[in-house]
Each structure stands twice: as C-alpha cells, then as structure tokens.
Description:
This protein is α+β, with helices and mostly antiparallel strands. The protein folds into 4 domains: 4-212, CATH 3.30.830.10; 237-388, CATH 3.30.830.10; 393-572, Cytochrome Bc1 Complex, Chain A, domain 1 (2-Layer Sandwich); 585-696 and 711-749, 2-Layer Sandwich (Cytochrome Bc1 Complex, Chain A, domain 1). It is built from 26 helices and 20 strands. The strands form 4 sheets. A 6-stranded mixed β-sheet has the order 1-2-6-3-5-4. Strands 10, 11, 12, 13, 14 and 15 form a 6-stranded mixed β-sheet that branches. A hairpin with a 2-residue loop joins strand 12 and strand 13 (466-473). The chain is globular and about 70 Å long. The model has no long low-confidence stretch (mean pLDDT 92).
Amino acid sequence: MPDATQHLTLANGLQLTLRHAPRLKRAAAALRVQAGSHDAPAKWPGMAHFLEHLFFLGTARFPLEDGLMRYVQALGGQVNASTRERTTDFFFEVPPAALAGGLERLCQMLAEPDLGIERQRREREVIHAEFIAWSRNPQAQQQFALLQSVSPQHPLSSFQAGNRYTLALQDPAFQRALGLFHQRFYQGGQITLSLCGPQPLEALERLGRESGSLFPAGSRATQASPPPLRRAGQPLTFAHESLPEGAERALGLLIDLLDDSRPGGWLSALRQRGWLQGFKAETLYAFAGQLLWHIDLQLGADACKDEAIALLHSWFGFVRQADPQRLNAAFSQLQRSREWAASPLELARRDSSGQPFAALDEQGLSALKALLASLPSSEHGQWQIPAADALLTAAPPPATAPLPKALAISDMLPASRQYAALYLRWHLPSSLRHGVFPILCQALRPLQERAERAGLHLQFSEAGEYWQLQCAGQPSAVMNAVTEALALLNAPSPADWHTPPPPAPALIPIRALLKRLPDAMHTHKAEPLPAGSLEPRQLAQAWEQARWHGLALGFEDTGPLGTVLTHCPGQGATATAPPQWQARRWVDAALAGSENAVLLFCPVPADQQAIGRLLAQLLQGPVYQRLRVELQLGYAVFSAFRQIEGCAGLLFGVQSPHATPAQILAHLQPVLSKGVVLDSAAQQALAEQFAEPAMANAEVAEWAWQTHLATRPDRLNDLQWSILMARQADLDALLGSLLAPHAPWLCLANSAAPDPSWH
C-alpha cells in the first residue's frame, strides 16, 4: 500500500508536507530553509553555518539541557543539521509519541534563538575546530579543489565554512548582519517543513500547524542569481547552465544509470578491461538552473584514462538516444524499492528537499532531455540498458534442503514487517584470511553495488579471526542476494585474484577509529602471510578450517533458507563467547593525520546491561556539556552504549585539534567520577525504546544478532523490565566498578599509550 501524502501552505507562508506511512515505527521531521552560505554577506564567510550552530545552544523556553539535541538523544533518536550553499536543513527522528515535543523545540529554537555574545564566542571556537579538521581532511580538500574548477567570480570557488577570523563578533556591523540574515530568511515564506510517520495525516497536520505557526509570516525572499559556472575544468566535472525545473531529479536518474555496473553499461566496460577500482558520482551544486556534478573515478595503473573518458562520452550518446519512458520506468521501480526501505528520516528529508522517491514527471523528463543535450557525447557503440535486476523481481529459491543446525531462527522480527535479516559468521584460525579477505571483497563489490541500488543492505566484514556476512531487506531479495554472495565467496573469478583492491577512502580520525573498533575488540596477534602470491587452493584450505554459525530473522517461510545455505563454506558450529580481557588495553591505530582522536570502551557485565544502558543515557548530557561546550575539546564529542562483537559497554569518543588522547581521558575521568542521579522520566523513556513495536527494523535485527553473539538468550521485555527496576545504588555500583583502577577498559587511539599502566 503506497504512502499517503499531503501538501499545504500555512497562513504565514510555510510549506507543509505530510507523509502517512503505517509501516514505520518512528516519526521524523525535516525543515528546510531556502537560504545558505551564499546568501550571507560575502564580507563574513561562514555566517550561515555559524547561525546554524547557535540555534542548538538552547533558548529561554528550552535551555540547552532540555533543547532539541538532548531531547532527541534521550529518546534514542537522531538529530542533525546541514548548511549548504543555498539551503539549510534541520532534521530529527524520534518515537512517534515524541514528534510533538521535538517539533516544538525545533521550530521554537529557529524562530526565537538566543544570540547572546558569550555563547557566540564559545561557539566560534567550535566552528574554528571544525575548520581545522576540514582543512586537514583529504576528502574535504579534494572536494574544495573540485569547486575551484568553476569561475572565480562564482561563490562556489570561495571559502564559506567560517573560522575564528572570518566571524568578526566584535564588529557591530557583523551583529546587525547576523540579525538581519535571521530575520530575512527564518520566516514562513522561506521554509518547507516535512513530517513523516505512522500517524494519520490529520494528526501530522495538527502538529505541523501548531509548531509551524511559530514563525513570522513572510513571502519568499529573492535569492540573488549567481554568475555563470563555466570555466575550463576537469574532464569528469560537468557544469550546466539554464536547465529547466526538475534538473536535479533528472540528474538522479542519470547517476542511477551510470551507477549500474551490470553488463551493458560504462562501469561494466571499465571493469571488463580490468581498469575499474572505484567510482562515485555526486551532485556538487544545484541552484537556479545551474548544476555542477562530478564523477570520482579510480582507475588501475594500467588503465587509459583518455579511453575511459571517450567510452563515457559514447555512453552519454547512447543514453541520449534511448527511450526516456523506458529509462523512467526502470527508475520508478528502483525508487519504489528505495522508498519501501527508507527510514522516516530519509523520507522526510527527501520530501523537504523536493526529491521524493518517485519517477520523473513530465517536467523532469524535459529536464533530462536538456541535461543530456548539454553533456559531451559521441557515436555510441555496443551499449545496452540492463533488464530489471533479479534482486528486485526474482522469487525466493525453492525449499529443497533442510535448515542447517548452525543457523538459529529468531522470532524477534515479526514477518508482518516484511523485512528480513540474515547473518553468517565464520571463525577462520588460518592466517590466510588476511590475504584472501581483500580478494573476496573485490569479488562481492558488483553484488554490493546492485544490492545498494535495490534498497538492500549487504556487508562483508572482518574482525579478529572472524568474517561476517550480513544482508537485510525485503525477504526474497535477501535470500537471492545471499545465494549469489555465497557463490562468490566460494569461487571468486580469476580477475578478482589479480585486481588490486581500491584505495580506502580517507576518513577523519574519529570515523577511522570507529571502523577499526570491532577488530580492536579481539586480542589476537597479527600473523605473517605465507610467502608468494595467493591462489584459489589456499582459499579452499582456509574454508576447510572455517566454522560458521548464523541467525535469521523476519522470514515468514524459512524453508528456502536451507537451499540458500547449501553451499555455505566451512563446517557448521555454535556461537562462542564474545571477546574478553582482564586489564586495561591501549591499541594504537597508527593513523595518519594531525588531529588527535580517542575511543574509550568500558565493558559492562552481561547481566548488568540494563544498568549500563541507563548509566550511558544519564552520562550523555554531562559528558557533552563538559567536553564539548565548556572545554571545547573539539566538535566531535559523543558518548553512548554500544554492543560490539557481542560485548556490551559504554563508549566515549572525542576528536580534538589540540588535546592529546591522554589529556582527553584526563578530562573525561572527573565527569564520570561525579556520578549520575537517577531520573525516573529518563528511565521510563529508555525502557520504552526497547518495545519491539517501537523499534526500527534494523534495530531489532542488530539487537537480536548481538544477543546471539553474546550467547545469552535475552529478550527485549526482560531488558525493559530490568531498566525500570534499576535503582540509584545499582548505577553507583556499576559506575564504581567501571572506574576501578584495574577495570578492563579498551582505549583505541591514533597515538601510542601515554604510560606503561596501559597493557
């Protein structure tokens, strides 16, 4: 059943978009202001971004401790904001009953912000820390370099993020400009508010009208037209002028076609030549008929870039001649699949930006024609539009084999959700796993690309001596994707053995540490690889020593899973206990980069997980207040409860441009030592987050998998009950044990241990 949508205009000019989606377990709001960094005075770069930050510091009505961020985080939700060139977006996702409270806080903080000079001074330092991290991040600098390909008269070519020197707080003219910017753009005529959730349209409309009316009335302000984009640039960066309405969505269709790596397309041609290592196409800028987009193409050392570009132009020529209705029909099928798999937050953000998961309308098709006409093209060769992907259309395999004993079946994800997840995990003691893993990743890449296009989550990862395959989405598509994945894991193609893996994307230090954390949980010692090149027989040897187990959730008919797992490599086994260590451990990730980052993981005993979750919830505010707001250690500061590799614990993370990991830990310890005070409202809210009907599909699946890895048959209702039964003495006792001198902390940092007390 399709979602029900409605579009309204309030008396103050605010555009209200509503989406009723009964399948959703959460609700979301996305508010877009039609103003961004290019609309602020050029004299003060970063003003729009600075104002976005100031909104989150609390108001008289909702101070920081009761503001939007704390409110959403206390409910286990998501909240963020983003300032682009011509738009600023604010968005959050919460349990449906909390949508009203979040929406009231969001609209009130934007309509009536506190722009006091002292909070401006503190937040400018946070902006400066972001600027330092941005200036040191290779990906950010690569994108900034791309924008230098446009005309130097265009604001895209200039610095817009802001720092300590561009935000002249002491200048009365800056303060007047800041106030005028807010007054001009944060009014009804500039705003689109989108609400999405399982609530009826009438209930969403009532919430939207109540909170949306907080903005003063106004009409759409004119945003100055930019100068032309064009300038001789890179061959894979494309600038367009004077395109009709709908061009950004038309580009979405083109990028979807370009992104299809199946036979017949440009990526397939590059892959067949053994050239393709990595690919990503993205929109860099879209406004007033201008469109700038880029193809990030990574080719092997033997590739001919000029020929690759010539092939692209030939493919553009082919697409220009293709039937647009056929292209749009395939795009529509993909969009329906993505809409079904999307979270409430994704749906709300799409609606607020005018980019819903839908086929192109007539205006969009006209824009597609204009877009293709403005691209370089040549006589097309042997190209073709691939047929509908089997992941979207095929029925599940027949039930011809019994379910293996190594596969556990969980009923924690009701089949009525029409969402399934299958986890498979192998223990491989052989040191061959280090060399073979990149080859298997290479073999799986085309399937992962197809899965992502089809709205499936397919991931292959390693941690310690373990490999893990995870697939989640529509049940029959999951079975078909895993069937293909297992065939590839058993027998990668000859080309996969000789194609070097693509370079890993550069990540900021804190994200790089988060990626490495699962591996750091294990205490295994690195083993040298066997001498010489790897061969298929060595993969077979590794699989012969492997032991596997798995978990399936959400399948109404589990019979076909036996067929799917017929060719699962390795021998079936049972799950083993999660990793444990008895003393403090420091793991130096040896990351390149000039900023310091640290993750501190404090394991919690399995029988005290409920107390640990409550403790983590109550620590979020104090940790953020002290490290982020008061000490301004950096813009990346967080604390949370996490289950990693079946091990539960409190996780703290900080990235700082000036504090060392040792200093960060020294600042964190006094915050923890102060303890927490039991809050019954927070306790009740946390317990409600673990009611199965209120949890998102992926949350239920991951909870069940982590419980399986922990080898403890916990139930969600048991966790809820334990949270509600927690007392102040329980919190004090657990925190005391975590702060004990020999508590088994794990510290993952991008530097060596500060002293020998860390083992």
